From TrEMBL:
Its EC number(s): 3.6.4.13
Superkingdom of the source species: Bacteria
Gene giving rise to this polypeptide: deaD
Matching Pfam families: DbpA (PF03880), DEAD (PF00270), DeaD_dimer (PF25399), Helicase_C (PF00271)
Subcellular location: Cytoplasm
Motif interval(s): Q motif: 7-35
Protein name according to UniProt: ATP-dependent RNA helicase DeaD
Biased composition (Basic residues): 577-587
Enzyme class label: hydrolase
Functional note: DEAD-box RNA helicase involved in various cellular processes at low temperature, including ribosome biogenesis, mRNA degradation and translation initiation.
Signal sequence range: none
Helicase C-terminal domain segment(s): 233-380
Domain DEAD-box RNA helicase Q span(s) in chain numbering: 7-35
C-alpha cells in the first residue's frame, strides 16, 4: 500500500471517545503508518505492517482497536504481545492515555519479574486490554488465570525482536488460545522468513503496509539530548537560552495551546518569542516568520504542522521541548536548522520513559545524539560578561563619547574618585536590571541535580513528628534518582516539593518521607504515577520482612530535611539575551 497524504484524523472514523484524545495528546495529522493502518483495523481486517520503532505504530493499532472495545464488558478483548517489559509498559501507558474518556476501562501490563498477586488481583477485577511479554502471558494461560475467549483482536508488536529473543514459538502457542475469528495485526521492522511464516499461518488475507523511514539528516547539525530530571523543563530551557550563542531558534511542542503558553512564559523571562500554530491566520503566520527572518524576533514556539516548509537561514538552534511522536517528525524538526551551509544545533528534552524513542531515533538516523549537561551558573555569568564587553566595545567604536569623557573628568575632580571606581559604578548601574552574576537562587540547581549535597545546603529541617515514611515500588535497579521522585510526587500529587523529606534508595524500592496529613485522594493518584517505567504503588512503609535484607544492605540516603524548589534565575523582562554579535573588540 502506498503512503497516504493529506488525511486528517477526523477522516478516519475513530470512536468519538477515542477521537477526543487526539488533540489532547498533540497529534495534528496522522503519520503514514497511522493513516494506512487505522481504516483497515477499524473495519476488522487483519494487517501485516512493516515499520520501524518510532513511526507512530502504537497509535496506529491502539486508536482503531480501542474504538472497537466495549468497556462495559469486564473481560480481555484485546491482547498485545511485546518482546520486552519496557515496551509492554510503554504500550500499556499509551493505551491508558488513548482510552482516558472510555468509562470503566482498564489495561493490564503483564511481564516476568512482576508479582503474580498484583496481576491476579487486576485480572479478577476485570480488564479490557492485556499487554504483555509472551512468557508471562503463556504462564497465565496455562494457569487458567487469563482467558482469551472474548478477545476480538490480537497485536504482535516487533515480531522480528520476538524472533531474535526466541519467543516466536510461544507467540504461536498463545495465538492458539484466541478465537479463530479474531482480528490479528502483526508489526515488524524487518520481515525475515520466520516472521512471514507466522503471518501466513495466523493472518487471514491481511492488508499489507510498508513504511520506509526517512533517515537523512543534515551533517552540519550537532545533536544533543538532556534527560529531564529534577529541574523543570522551562528552567532548563532558560539556562540554555542564557548560555548558548544563539542567532535564531525554533522550539517544538506538541499542542497549539502549548505554543502560546510557552511563548508567553519566555516573553515574561525577557526573551523575544512568539507562537506559530495552525490556529493563526495565514497573514499572522507570515508576519511571524518575517520577523524571525529579519531578526526582530529570536524564538518561535511551533507545532510540527505549523513549521512545515519553514526555511529561515538564521535559525541556529532547534529545541525539541516535547519529544516528537515519531522519527519522521524529529528529522523534519531538526532540518529547520543547518540551512544554507551553516552549522546548526538540535537539542532534545527526554524524560526517562522516553529513552526508547531516543534509541529509535539514533538507530534510524545512524547518528549518535550526545548527552549534554545544562549550563552552570558560571557559564551564564561568563556569557553575560562576554556580551557586556561586546556592548562596551561596540559603543566605543560607534559613538561620540567626548561629552561623557568630560563629564567623568569633572566628576573625578569634584569628588576625588578614581576613574576605575567611576567606571565600576557606571557598569553596576547599567547591569542592575539584569545582573551579570545570576541571583543566588540560581544555585538551587545544585540541590536538584546533586542530591548528595542537599543536606549540606539546606538550612531548614523537617519536623519528624509531622512526617510519615512511605514505600514506593521503584529503586536503583530501575534507574531512579531522587529528582525523579521529587518531580513525580510534587507534580502529580500537587505536593510542594519543600514538603518532601528524606529519600532513601534501595535496589527494588525506595522510601520517602511525606506529610502525615496526605489525603486518600492524593495517595490513590500517586499509586498509578509512573517513574522510570514503574508505577509508584505508594503505601505506608511497614518495615516488612520482604524488604529487610535490602534495608540492612548498602543504600543511599539523601538528607532529612526539605527539598527546595524555589524559583530558578529569571532574567528581567524586556532585555534581549542574545542576538547578532556585531561588535568588535578594540585593540
Amino acid at each position: 500500500m502506498n503512503e497516504t497524504t493529506n488525511i486528517s484524523f477526523a477522516d478516519l472514523g475513530l470512536a468519538p471517545d477515542v477521537f477526543k484524545v487526539i488533540n489532547e495528546v498533540g497529534y495534528e495529522t496522522p503519520s503514514p503508518i497511522q493513516a494506512q493502518s487505522i481504516p483497515p483495523l477499524l473495519a476488522g481486517c487483519d494487517l501485516l505492517g512493516q515499520a520501524q520503532t518510532g513511526t507512530g505504530k502504537t497509535a496506529a493499532f491502539a486508536l482503531p482497536l480501542l474504538s472497537r472495545i466495549k468497556p462495559k464488558m469486564k473481560a480481555p478483548q484485546m491482547l498485545v504481545l511485546t518482546p520486552t517489559r519496557e515496551l509492554a509498559l510503554q504500550v500499556a501507558e499509551s493505551m491508558q492515555t488513548y482510552a482516558r474518556h472510555l468509562k470503566n476501562f482498564h489495561v493490564l501490563p503483564v511481564y516476568g519479574g512482576q508479582n503474580y498477586t498484583q496481576q491476579l488481583r487486576q485480572l479478577a477485577r476485570g480488564v479490557q486490554v492485556v499487554v504483555g511479554t509472551p512468557g508471562r502471558v503463556q504462564d497465565h494461560l496455562n494457569r487458567g488465570t487469563l482467558k482469551l475467549d472474548k478477545v476480538i483482536s490480537v497485536v504482535i508488536d516487533e515480531a522480528d525482536e520476538m524472533l531474535k529473543m526466541g519467543f516466536i514459538e510461544e507467540v504461536e502457542q498463545i495465538l492458539d488460545f484466541a478465537p479463530e475469528d479474531r482480528q490479528t495485526a502483526l508489526f515488524s521492522a524487518t520481515m525475515p522468513n520466520e516472521v512471514l511464516s507466522v503471518a501466513r499461518k495466523h493472518l487471514k488475507d491481511p492488508v499489507e503496509i510498508r513504511i520506509k523511514s526517512k533517515t537523512s539528516t543534515v551533517e552540519k547539525i550537532s545533536q544533543h539530548f538532556w534527560q529531564v530530571k529534577g529541574l523543570h523543563k522551562l528552567d532548563a530551557l532558560t539556562r540554555i537560552l542564557e548560555a548558548e550563542e544563539i542567532d535564531g531558534m525554533i522550539i517544538f511542542v506538541r499542542t497549539k495551546v502549548a505554543t502560546v503558553e510557552l511563548a508567553e512564559k519566555l516573553e515574561a523571562r525577557g526573551f523575544s518569542s512568539a507562537a506559530l500554530n495552525g490556529d493563526m491566520t495565514q497573514m499572522l503566520r507570515e508576519k511571524t516568520v518575517d520577523r524571525l527572518k529579519d531578526g526582530s524576533l529570536d524564538i518561535v514556539v511551533a507545532t510540527d504542522v505549523a513549521a512545515r516548509g519553514l526555511d529561515v537561514p538564521r535559525i541556529s538552534h532547534v529545541v525539541n521541548y516535547d519529544i516528537p511522536h515519531d522519527i519522521e517528525a524529529y528529522i523534519h524538526r531538526i532540518g529547520r536548522t543547518g540551512r544554507a551551509g551553516r552549522e546548526g544545533k538540535a537539542i532534545l528534552f527526554v524524560a526517562p520513559r522516553e529513552r526508547r524513542m531516543l534509541s529509535a531515533i539514533e538507530r534510524a538516523t545512524k547518528q549518535p545524539i550526545k548527552a549534554m549537561a545544562l549550563p552552570s551558573r558560571k557559564d551564564i555569568t561568563d556569557r553575560r560578561i562576554g556580551l557586556f564587553k561586546e556592548q562596551i566595545a561596540e559603543a566605543m567604536e560607534s559613538q561620540d563619547l567626548e561629552f561623557f569623557e568630560e563629564l567623568i573628568d569633572q566628576y573625578q575632580s569634584e569628588y576625588d574618585v578614581g576613574h576605575r571606581k567611576i567606571a565600576a559604578t557606571l557598569a553596576y548601574l547599567l547591569q542592575k536590571e539584569r545582573p551579570l552574576q545570576p541571583d543566588e537562587r540560581f544555585a538551587e540547581e545544585i540541590r536538584e541535580e546533586r542530591p548528595e549535597r542537599q543536606q549540606r545546603d539546606r538550612g531548614q529541617k523537617t519536623d519528624d513528628s509531622d512526617m510519615q515514611t512511605y514505600r514506593i515500588e521503584v529503586g536503583r535497579k530501575h534507574g531512579v534518582e531522587p529528582g525523579n521522585i521529587v518531580g513525580a510526587i510534587s507534580n502529580e500529587g500537587k505536593i510542594n516539593s519543600r514538603s518532601i523529606g528524606r529519600i532513601r534508595l534501595f535496589d527494588h524500592f525506595s522510601l520517602v518521607d511525606l506529610p502525615k496529613d496526605l489525603s486518600s485522594e492524593i495517595l490513590h493518584k500517586l499509586k498509578t504515577v509512573w517513574v522510570c517505567d514503574e508505577q509508584l504503588q505508594i503505601s505506608v512503609d511497614s518495615g516488612s520482612a520482604a524488604g529487610k535484607n535490602e534495608r540492612t544492605g548498602k543504600r543511599r540516603s539523601f538528607g532529612k530535611g526539605k527539598f527546595s524548589s524555589g524559583n530558578k534565575f529569571q532574567p528581567s523582562s524586556g532585555k534581549k539575551p542574545f542576538g547578532k554579535r556585531s561588535g568588535k573588540k578594540k585593540k
